[in-house]
Amino acid sequence: MLRPVVVGLDGSRESLAAADWAAREALRRGLPLRLVHAWAGGTSPDESELPELEAPRYWARRILRGAMDRLNESYPQVYLSADQISRPAADALIAAGDESELLVLGSRAFSGFGGFMAGSIALATVAHAARPVVLVRADQTLEDEHVPDAEGHASARTPYRGVVIGVDPASPCEELLAFAFESASLRSAPLTVVYAWRLPYVPKALEAKARRDVRRAAERTLGAVLGPWREKYPTVEVRELVEEGRPAQQLLEAAQDAGLLIVGRKVRPARIGMHTGPIAHAVMHHVRCPVAIVPHE
Questions:
Q1: Is 105 in the same domain as 153?
Q2: Range of the domain at 122
Q3: I need a surface site. Which of 168, 171, 205, 232 has the fewest CB within 10 A?
Q4: Among the residues of the chain, which ranges form H helices?
Q5: pLDDT of 52-65, one tens digit each?
């Protein structure tokens, strides 16, 4: 059975932009799209008939119906389904995400303002989801996925923007690379693989030689990790970016003109706290393109 692309909805501009992006991704992957709206009302039989819950229940149905109508008109080739889930939002999204190929959420850049997809709910979902989560901002459009035309104007007819991924070859990154190469292949887009390294302490007189040696070792290590993936995806153009510096800063610079940025999140043994890691945390706040956070061991 095909896993769907799942998108969380709350009726905001951010979640509607996420739904559009999710529909396009479902088309690229040949997968169904599932719309999910969650709210904590009516979670028990005694509560389900309370009259004060009818208004929020009505608005929840309206959000789903409106999104269904909009997506059916814009993306008639996508098979759509919709579910209203009576559970706390983060719990519902995590559960729906676990059954998906990927989960798509609207992002308000986690500015601290409240909202269904902002703050603790989005962070908890990203931190605990077992499948990749993609965060999409409200201003993302179809044209933003493509490079500008010859006159510099936004266009949906030009090639896709590149995909960027940050890796650390010293840690397991198979899930990350699989997602990145597949994403680049589906878009016929180039893939930039970023590996940021730091120079260990050495006496100042030896710094220049040590820097050359560490860079060469980093390039060899990354090349060895990417070798099997280049063979599996021979049509994907791969650029290896091995630079000294902080990983988050290198990713922010590499992703300035990207169509998708992919970073990893190490899976924790228990679903406690909201740890996403410093790199994922930084790019979620500052990168303008959609960001995919891929859990890995």
A1: no
A2: 5-137
A3: 205
A4: 13-29, 45-48, 54-74, 89-98, 119-128, 174-187, 207-232, 247-254, 278-286
A5: 456 566 777 888 99
**Helices and strands counted in the chain (H then E):** 9, 10
| Polymer length in residues for the chain | 297
Whole-angstrom Cα distance, residue 188 to residue 296?
25
Q: In the structure, what pLDDT confidence band is assigned to residue 142 with cuts at 50, 70 and 90?
A: very high
Dump pLDDT digits (tens) for 201-226.
888 888 899 999 999 999 999 999 99
Count the domains in the chain: 2
Report the amino acid identity of residue 158: T
Pair (150, 131) in one structural domain: no
Where residue 36 sits, what CATH number does that domain have?
3.40.50.620
Domain end marker among 102, 137, 172 = 137
> Between helices 89-98 and 119-128, what is the axis angle to 10°?
30
- Evaluate whether 17 touches 140 at the Cβ level (below 8 Å): yes
Percent share of the chain, pLDDT over 90: 63
Six-digit token string for 88: 């706390």
The torsion angle over the Cα atoms of residues 279, 282, 283 and 285, rounded to 10 degrees, is 160
Task: Please give the C-alpha separations between residue 127 and each of 94, 133, 195, in angstroms, as whole numbers.
Answer: 9, 10, 23
The pLDDT value recorded for residue 59 is 74
* Side-chain-facing half-sphere of 101: CA atoms under 13 Å: 21
Q: What is the CATH number of the domain that holds 235?
A: 3.40.50.12370
